[in-house]
Amino acid sequence: MVPACSKIAERAFARPVIAVRGVKVHSVGLTGGSLDVALFISNPNPYPLPIRRASYRFTLSDSTEIGRGESATAFTLPAHDSTAVRLPVDVSWQGLRAAARDASRDGTVDYRLTGTVTLGTPLGDPNVPFDIAGRFTPPPALLRSVP
Predict the structure, then answer these.
(1) Among 1, 23, 53, 122, which one is least packed by beta carbons within 10 Å?
(2) What is the pTM of this model?
(3) CATH number, domain 14-145, options 1.20.120.920, 2.60.40.10, 3.40.50.720, 3.30.1050.10
């Protein structure tokens, strides 16, 4: 791309704003469990943004990986609009134990969600990185069921 065109494209494009709306324990079974992360994406641009996919990694605050995944559901985010996206995270028993250990201190789990949202644009498919720290409260039943 010509440098002048690159500068124009940078000024014409504002990165989407990405935030976590919530984390819920979806299920617990014999081999592990799953979490649902509600990701909220806002488009500050005056034109729609095609979202191709999101890839992500869910860790505890001490960097213990709980799970990872990729959402390949494509959609278009309208101009000046927002939407919630569900990110499923499969969790091993080791991950559940680590989360329960973290929650045993004060009933909450400190986490970090990192990853990228891949856009589809006429100028290519840029990745928009995100790195979000937060805290969620697992259900008491989870804390009782994990040794």
Answers:
(1) 122
(2) 0.85
(3) 2.60.40.10
